[in-house]
Amino acid sequence: xxxxxxxxLNFELEQNFAYDDYFVSKSNHFAFSLIESWxxxxxxxxxxxGEKFSGKSHLSEIFKKKNKAIxxxxxxxxxxxxxxxxxxxxxxxxxxxxxxxxxxxxxxxxFVEQFNKYLIxxxxxxxxxxxxxxxxxxxxxxxCIFAKIDKPDDDMIFALVLKHFSDRQIKIEKKxxxxxxxxIERSYGKILEFIYKVDQFSLINKKPIDYKSIKKILEE
Length: 220
Prior knowledge:
This protein is of the alpha/beta class. It is 49% helix and 11% strand. A five-stranded parallel sheet has the order 2-3-4-1-5, sandwiched between helices. Helix 4 links the parallel strand 2 (69-73) and strand 3 (90-94). Helix 1 crosses helix 9 (188-205), helix 2 (29-37) runs parallel beside helix 3 (56-67) and helix 8 runs parallel beside helix 10.
């Protein structure tokens, strides 16, 4: 991970994962509605996928608090994994875009089915598009509900920019946020990068954010 990505990751972690801090728009409505409608799912396995920083982990934390789930990171999946999850009805695998031990993942699917548990898998791309070599695993991957978090729409961009500025006590006019919304790249990572740059600019220059400074940062 390069230095900027690491900085942005730490920057993102300053947020909390409270229910009220999750903004719902067309971009993420389907994924959010599934989290809200549990356990009334058509299938027991849900794959939420979307680009980095799109809110997958935030949704997982919301689900965990409401439904007593366990969140397991990819690096925690090993032979002892089943001792951790057997007491939970709901299991969340976070950041699962590659797993070297395919047999363990296949065993997880069997475990969920056998004991009638629920599984949420977060990934950047849909898990049935990952090139796993195990044929039985590939067939199982299609037996999921797939919920994509799309690129942020105008409402989402406006809400994210406003929320981040508010959290960092950066005062900015509504019309400037509208200006940003129309011009910033539609990427959660780019929005986070932009907020970080504005925050640094504000701390260094100790002056109000205006159109001129916003335009300069957007053009960088």
